[in-house]
Amino acid sequence: MSAPRSITADDLSLHPPVEEDAQLVAELMDVPVSADRPAEIVRGWREHWDEHGYGAWIVQEASGRRVGFVGLRAHDEFIRVTIRVVEDEGGDQLASRALRLVVAHALEWLPDLPLRIRVAPDDLVTRFVAESAGMVHVPELDHTVDADAWQVRELPYVRVADRIPARAREAMLRMWVEVNDAGGAVGFVPGASEEEVARVLDGYAAKLAEGGAACVALNSPLGDLLGFGFVVQPAGATVAHTGTLERIMTDPARRGTNHGALLLAGLHRAARERGVEIVTLDYRGGTGLGEFYTRYGYREVGRVPGGVRVAPGDDRDGVIMAKAL
Ligand SMILES: CC(C)(COP(=O)(O)OP(=O)(O)OC[C@H]1O[C@@H](n2cnc3c(N)ncnc32)[C@H](O)[C@@H]1OP(=O)(O)O)[C@@H](O)C(=O)NCCC(=O)NCCS
After folding, report:
1. Fold of 158-324
2. If you classify domain 7-155 with CATH, what class do you get?
3. How far, in Å, from the CA of 292 to the mean position of ligand 1?
4. Nearest C-alpha to atom 17 of ligand 1 is from which residue?
C-alpha cells in the first residue's frame, strides 16, 4: 500500500498544498498575496510532492480553517522539517499536535532517513514544539549559516531486528521491569522480578529465531532505548496476513513526548513489511489504553470479561482491538 497523502485526526488534518494556499503562506509571511514569493513557495512544495510523494502539509483545523504548514524536504542524507502556524492563541499547541502527527506518519511511511529540524537557540517555542514531538538535540549536528547559529534536533529512529540484539537485552529488561513497577500493563504486576521478566523476554528470542516475530525498538539519536514491542505472526497459511502487536512499552521517565505514537508507527511499518494486513493487540481494561489505540485507528473487536487477574479480587477485562493496515 502506498503512503496516504493526507493525515487525519479528530482535531485537525493535514493535506498536500493546493495553489490557493499561497493566500495562507502570504499571511504567515506577512506579505501581500499579490507578492511573487508565496506562490513560488507553494509551487516548490507541489513540485516536491510530485517528485518524492511527500512534502509540505497544510494544517487544517476541524472547522476547515487552514492555519499553517509542516514542511518536509528531502536532502541527500536526511529529511528537513519546518513548521509554521498562525500566531493565534493556542498556536503552539496546534503546532505541537501537527508536528507530532507528521513525524509519526513519516516514521511509518516515508524513506528511512533521519528527520531533522533546525532551531534558533533563542526560539523557545519551536524548541518546545520539537521536543513534544520527540525530537532530540544532537549537539554534533549544530552549525552556523551566514552568522546564524542553529541547533539541530533529530527524531528517534526505529530498528527492526529478527533477534534480540545482545547489547539491547539489558536495556530492554531494565525498561520492562520499570514499566511493570510504574503500573504498566505488559504482562506483569508491579514488583515482578527481573528473572520472571527475563524468562518472558527470552521466550521471544525463540519466536524470533523461528521467523514468526520481529523485535521493534525505538532509539534516541543519542543511542538510548526509548521503547520497544514485538510483531508476532501466527503459524498457518489462512492467517499469515494477520499479526499481533505485543508488549508495547515506552520509557516511563519520558512519557508524553510522542514515543508511544512513534513506536506504534514503527510497529505498523514492520508489520506491513512482513505482509501483515490486519493487526490486533490486547490491553487490560481499566487502564485507559483503549482511548490511546482508538486515536491510531484501532477499534474494539472483543472483550473477555474478567480475563485479566491483576490481583486477587481485581479482575479486569481483556480487551482485543484490531486495525487494518
Ligand atoms: C501506552 C504507552 C506505550 C504510550 O506511550 P507514551 O510514551 O506515553 O506515548 P505518547 O507520548 O505518544 O502518547 C501520549 C498520549 O497518549 C495518552 N496515553 C498514554 N497512555 C495512556 C493510557 N494508559 N490511557 C489513556 N491515555 C494514554 C496520553 O494521555 C497522551 O495524550 P496527549 O497526546 O493528549 O497528551 C506507554 O504509556 C506505556 O508504555 N505504558 C505502559 C505499558 C503499557 O501499558 N503498554 C500497553 C500494552 S497494550
Report:
1. Aminopeptidase (3.40.630)
2. alpha beta
3. 6
4. 292
